[in-house]
């Protein structure tokens, strides 16, 4: 969960590990929310620079209640989490490209959307390679169309206009061709070899 609040105090717990006490807010009878860190030794430089009254945002896991105060643990700073999450996505994308099935839907959507965008507008990919990817309104519109096609439900698909249905069918074929090339489809059954991922109209 995302925990946000104002630091009331910083104390040491068992093993001399830092615990942040955050104000619980005016609309509650609770006094504080107690937050312990996932990797306090790694985060110690950031923790020692925290001050009373400072606004703080952490990503944590709920661990119950002690003396009427909620306790959260395994907390980490959001920038740490973003870096770890980005690394996991990059690893999943690389695995996907190398033909290793992955259940990470973000990786799958990213690589398939990028692939379809390159078919729709090859000049955009060339510009990306030279100047970095800048998503303007035109490109953003194409990305939205691609994502809506990849995630569309059967009942929504049946209501599409012929033009939009043809575009969705085109995207389906292109993605299946990509999956076949990357060996992410069972050659005997045509089933996706990707866990926890579903394209409902496909």
Structure description:
By secondary structure, the chain is α+β, with helices and mostly antiparallel strands. It has two domains: 2-75, OB fold (Dihydrolipoamide Acetyltransferase, E2P) (Beta Barrel), CATH 2.40.50; 87-181, no CATH class. Helix content is 46%, strand content 22%. It has seven helices and five strands. Strands 1-2-3-5-4 form a five-stranded mixed beta barrel. α2 crosses α3, α3 (105-120) packs across α4 and α3 (105-120) crosses α5.
User: Given the C-alpha coordinates, what overall shape results?
Assistant: elongated
Q: Which sequence of SSEs, written as H and E, runs from N to C?
A: EEEHEEHHHHHH
Strand content: 15-25%
Q: How do the strands of the widest beta sheet line up side by side?
A: 1-2-3-5-4
Number of domains: 2
Radius of gyration: 23 Å
Q: DSSP helix count?
A: 7
Q: Major beta sheet, specifics?
A: 5 strands, mixed, barrel
Unreliable stretches (pLDDT < 50, length at least 5) are none
Q: Termini separation (Å)?
A: 33 Å
**What percent of the residues sit in helical stretches (DSSP H or I)?**
40-55%
- Mean of the pLDDT scores? 79
Overall SS class? alpha+beta
The protein's oligomeric status is single chain
Strand segment tally: 5
How is the secondary structure organized here?
Layout: E1 2-12, E2 18-23, E3 32-37, H1 40-47, E4 55-66, E5 69-77, H2 78-97, H3 105-120, H4 122-131, H5 137-151, H6 154-157, H7 162-181
Parallel strand pairs: 3-5
Antiparallel strand pairs: 1-2, 1-4, 2-3, 4-5
């Amino acid at each position: 969960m995302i925990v946000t609040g104002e630091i009331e105090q910083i104390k040491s717990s068992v093993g001399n590990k830092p615990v942040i006490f955050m104000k619980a807010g005016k609309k509650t009878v609770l006094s504080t929310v107690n937050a312990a860190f996932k990797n306090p030794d790694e985060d110690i430089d950031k923790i020692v620079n925290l001050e009373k009254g400072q606004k703080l945002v952490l990503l944590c896991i709920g661990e119950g209640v002690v003396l009427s105060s909620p306790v959260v643990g395994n907390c980490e700073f959001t920038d740490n989490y973003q870096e770890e999450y980005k690394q996991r996505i990059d690893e999943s994308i690389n695995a996907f490209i190398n033909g290793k099935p992955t259940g990470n839907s973000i990786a799958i959507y990213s690589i398939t959307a990028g692939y379809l965008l390159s078919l729709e507008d090859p000049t955009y990919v060339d510009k990306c390679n030279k100047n970095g990817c800048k998503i303007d309104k035109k490109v953003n519109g194409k990305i939205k169309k691609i994502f809506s096609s990849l995630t569309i439900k059967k009942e929504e698909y049946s209501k599409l206009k012929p033009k939009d249905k043809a575009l969705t069918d085109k995207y389906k074929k292109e993605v299946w061709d990509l999956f076949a090339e990357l060996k992410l489809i069972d050659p005997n059954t045509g089933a996706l070899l990707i866990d926890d991922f579903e394209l409902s109209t496909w």
